[in-house]
Amino acid sequence: MSFSFIFQLLLNGIIAGAIYSLVSSGFSLIYTTNKVINFAHGAILVVSAYLAYLFFNIIGLPFVLASILAISLMVLVGYTCSKTIQKLRKKNVSTAMLLLASISILILIENGLLLVFGPKTKNYALFNTIHSIEIFGAIITPLEIAIILISSLLLFLLYYFVQKTKTGLKIRAVADESLLSESIGISSNKMKSIALIIASVIAGIAGILVGLEFKIEPFMGTGLIIKGFTGAIIGGVTSITGAIIGAFILGITENVGIAFLPSQFKDAITFMLLFVFLLFKPKGLLGGIK
Amino acid sequence: MIEAYLVHILILIGIYGILALSLNLALGYGGLLNLGHIAFFGIGAYTSAILSLHGAPLIIAFISSGLLTGLSGYLLSFASIKLKEDYLCLATLGFNFVIYSLMLNMDFLTKGAKGIAGIPRITGTIYLIITTSLFLITYFVIQKLTKSDFGKSLQATRDHELLAQTLGKNTLLIKNKTMACSAFFAGIAGSIYAHYIGFIDPSTFGLGEIILLLTIVILGGLASLKGTILATIFLITLPELLRFIAIPSSILGPARAIIYALTLLLILMYRPRGILGKVDLA
Predict the structure, then answer these.
(1) Cα dihedral sign for A104, A110, A115, A120?
(2) Terminal Cα distance for chain B, rounded
């Protein structure tokens, strides 16, 4: 096993981690504030990817405009989601039921997309030729570098927003003690909505990035939300930083793992990791730390 | 022709009925948030298929699939016993993903995505009789179980675990036994399914099928076996009606998934206790 081979796998792992972390951070942000295990988060990824496809490939808008339009629509989706959750909460719907509802929504939307767009995979066909770059014998494309940079930037902004801004502080307060924050005049429902909208926007961007790097297909949301939630569980679903770290651990483990196991076990590695953490360290690596 | 079709529907109702009844034992009577029930179905189906293709007589394959699945249910319960609510949901869902990916990746045993074909089949009226008998046995065993002392302790554990413990009940053991029993019947259903269809692949045991099962149990109502039976008949027959309006088969699959997901969503929103439910989903 050569150094460049391992380095290539490590690089692939970082690219995967960059994508997974965009999903897991939002998943964790929603869980901590809204207390919902939101599988419908995967639906946002796939809807955004298809909307960008609709605006760019079918309607013919410029790609940047199409993406911005798709991502802005995710604000609306996020807002609707949060209002729905709050409405259900008022009816005393339990967390388990909300989890089931979110899985139903994911399946509903993915199958709906399958009916509308058909089973054939799509891609934006934005780049005709791909010039790859070689670093230490490993190959990376400019798009992959862009994915890593965009992801890092978004995660940094998210971290800055949650940790350093006033609204971020309010969101953390609501996450810790929803009732107590209300008593000092914070509108907990508003903070929950803001958190869900931010998570949705990040997921929307992730969906388009995945569409650019791989392809768009109706069931990509399920695959990605499973990775995202596995990352969140590994790092600790109650900590956004943990969820990000967990996503990178997952991405790197499943890619470097191929060096030691047949490549078809890539997904099996993910799920083994998930299962081991759920059973032995359900709070994840950073779950206990605030 | 129409007769053969009717037999087919009834056999499906029998298979999914056994699955749903056994899930209701864990979910409804035990309050155990098991989202991995379809994995048990899969373990049963694969065990039976692999054994019978290696020359085991059907009856041996059938019984082994129940026992092995029961064991895996016990082990899953034993391993996840400390987990509560959300995390139990996630662990059992994770278990499902693990089993799914093993089916997909252990090519030497499961033939991967291609699935296992050529499983010895029994079809027709004789299989309807077998399936119906097993369905009735499942119903009466689970009914008897829930009315027994064990069943009462189980429901007490669901409603108030600490109180059940102070009354000297070993609640952990009760939960483990329940999961084993629930998994056993799911394994049996898997075996019946494999020898009926003659072909299995991982797609039968995915996320969509979990939703179907949960929809059946929640529509019928938690802790109501009669409700489960009604809901099974209703939900298995419902998408079949689509066949009569002559829509292409490429639409049938997604339409079926949409019907189930939409039904579950509507029940959760408007009638969380389903038709005959006695308890809420914790």
Answers:
(1) negative
(2) 45
Distance from CA of A161 to the nearest CA of B (A): 28
Per-residue tokens: A170: 């309010």
Amino acid sitting at position A182 = E
- Select from B38, B75, B97, B235 the residue whose CB has the most chain A CBs within 10 Å, as the one to mutate to test that interface: B97
d(CA B128, CA B116): 23
Residue of B nearest to A282 (CA): B87
Phi first, then psi, for residue B218 (nearest 5°) are -75, -35
Short-list A255, A201, A269, CA closest to A29:
A201
DSSP B133-147: HHHHHHHHHHHHHHH
Instruction: Examine the pLDDT at B24 and tell me if it is beyond 90.
Output: yes
Question: Is the ipTM, as predicted for this complex, more than 0.90?
Answer: no
Chain A positions in Cβ-Cβ contact with residue B98 (cut-off 8 Å): 268, 271-272, 274-275
Q: What is the mean pLDDT of chain B?
A: 88
Q: What is the pTM of this model?
A: 0.87
The closest alpha carbon to A141, from A82, A214, A73, belongs to A214
Look at residues B91, B74, B116 and name the one whose alpha carbon lies nearest to residue B204. Answer: B116
Spell out the long-range contacts of A90-94 with Cβ–Cβ below 8 A and sequence spacing 24 or more. Answer: A91/B269, A93/B268, A93/B269, A93/B272, A94/B280, A94/B281, A94/B282
Question: Roughly how many angstroms between the first and final C-alpha of chain A, as a whole number?
Answer: 41
CA distances from A16 to A124, A265, A277, B227 (A): 20, 16, 20, 45
Quick check: B5 pLDDT over 90? Answer: no
What is the SS3 assignment for A135? strand
A136: exposed, middle or buried (Cβ count in 10 Å: 0-12, 13-18, 19+): exposed
Joined together, the tokens standing for residue A12 give 């692939």
Provide the phi-psi class of A97: left if phi over 0, else alpha when psi is between -120 and 50, else beta: alpha
Give chain B's contact residues with A (Cβ, < 8 Å): 33, 79-80, 83, 85-87, 89-91, 94-95, 97-98, 100-102, 104-105, 107, 112, 207-208, 210-211, 214, 218, 250-251, 254-255, 257-258, 260-262, 264-265, 268-269, 272, 280-282
Contact between residue A60 and residue A124 where contact means Cβ atoms under 8 Å apart: no
Cβ atoms within 10 Å of A280's Cβ, excluding its own: 9
Give the number of beta-carbon pairs within 8 Å between A and B: 117
* A192's tokens: 């929950």
Q: What is the pLDDT of residues B223-274, one digit of tens each?
A: 889 999 999 999 998 888 777 777 777 788 888 888 888 988 888 888 878 8
Q: Which two tokens stand for residue A165?
A: 């801004």
Nearest Cβ partner for A275 among B98, B210, B211: B98
Degrees to nearest 5, angle at CA B67 with B64 and B73: 140
Distance CA A98, CA A94 (A): 6
Distance CA(B227)–CA(B28), nearest Å, equals 11
